[in-house]
Every structure is written in structure tokens, then in C-alpha cells.
Amino acid sequence: EEEEEEEEEEEGENEEEEENVEEEEEKEKEQEEEEEKEQDEDEEKRVVEVQG
């Protein structure tokens, strides 16, 4: 009977860990997108300067 309880606890912990991993991955993805956007804006500014 005790073993069953332990297994259920472990499953709950694993689910929490998976959620945390997903959140981390989402944050990293957002950060990368933000950096790409900044780079694009910088490039646009350079192009405008060169054209101007």
C-alpha cells in the first residue's frame, strides 16, 4: 500500500518538472525572438543610414 502512494507522489513531481521545463523552453524561445527582432531593427537602421 505504501509503494502505491510513493509512486503517485513521484508521478505528481514528474508532471511539475515537465511543466517547469516547458515554461523554461517558452521563455528561452521568447528571448530568442526578442533578440532577433532587435537585430532586425538594428539592420534596418543601418540600411536607412546607408541609403540616407
Automatic annotation (TrEMBL):
It comes from the Eukaryota. Residues 1-43 have a biased composition (Acidic residues). Residues 1-52 are annotated as: Disordered. This is Uncharacterized protein. It comes from Petrolisthes cinctipes.
